[in-house]
């Protein structure tokens, strides 16, 4: 009899949106049912699936997922999140149809967090609803690391300044030894 092996788990590295403000649409609200938290308590959870206006290297919309405890208690995150999207804090004593939130546009403040296993997650630190009658530019291409984009822009500007100086003065400027010394 030949052995039967289970396939190993392979994880796909998803492209994350950059840290900072990102426009997104709430595409789906899903009831996850009861989920055990890290303290061993069973809690009702919902999953918000946000689709950002950014695309990854394959042309797919970058998504951000947010798990919330399904309670409207003021100390929970769901009630304030509904207020972020609608402008009105829902009544704790009444049921609220979460699917009515689907399709809402908002600006998400993304914060990257590193897990102990080395993975990085894009978490939502804040949500600001889209003002009425405001048009938002869509389908920007996300870069894997916004710091690299900034460094490239600085290097590009420095090269432009050097080439401009070469055109004006003929030779590239070189500092004298006296100019390199710091007086303190």
In words, what does this structure look like?
- By secondary structure, the protein is of the alpha+beta class.
- The chain has a domain at 20-140: OB fold (Dihydrolipoamide Acetyltransferase, E2P) (Beta Barrel), CATH 2.40.50.
- 20% of the residues lie in helices and 34% in strands.
- It contains three helices and six strands, in the order E-E-E-H-E-E-E-H-H.
- Strands 1, 2, 3, 4, 5 and 6 form a six-stranded mixed β-sheet that branches.
- The protein is flat.
Briefly, what is this?
This protein is α+β, with helices and mostly antiparallel strands.
- The tally of beta strands, per DSSP, is 6
Secondary-structure element pattern, one letter each:
EEEHEEEHH
Poorly predicted runs are 139-144
The percentage helix is 10-25%
What percentage of amino acids are in beta strands? 25-35%
Could you describe the largest sheet, including whether it forms a barrel? Answer: 6 strands, mixed
């Amino acid at each position: 009899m030949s052995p039967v092996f289970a396939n190993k788990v392979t994880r796909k590295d998803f492209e994350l949106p950059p840290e900072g403000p990102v426009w997104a649409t709430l595409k789906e609200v899903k009831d996850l049912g009861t989920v055990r938290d890290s303290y061993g308590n069973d809690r009702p959870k919902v999953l918000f699936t946000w689709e950002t206006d950014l695309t990854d290297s394959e042309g797919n919309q970058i998504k951000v997922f947010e798990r919330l405890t399904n309670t409207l208690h003021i100390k929970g995150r769901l009630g304030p999140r509904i207020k972020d999207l609608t402008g009105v804090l829902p009544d704790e004593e009444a049921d609220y149809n979460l699917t009515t939130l689907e399709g809402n546009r908002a600006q998400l403040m993304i914060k990257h967090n590193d897990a102990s296993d080395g993975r990085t997650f894009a978490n939502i630190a804040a949500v600001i609803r889209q003002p009425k009658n405001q048009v938002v530019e869509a389908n920007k291409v996300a870069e894997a690391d916004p710091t690299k984009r900034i460094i490239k822009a600085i290097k590009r500007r420095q090269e432009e300044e050097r080439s401009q100086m070469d055109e004006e003065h003929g030779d590239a400027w070189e500092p004298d030894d006296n100019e390199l010394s710091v007086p303190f």
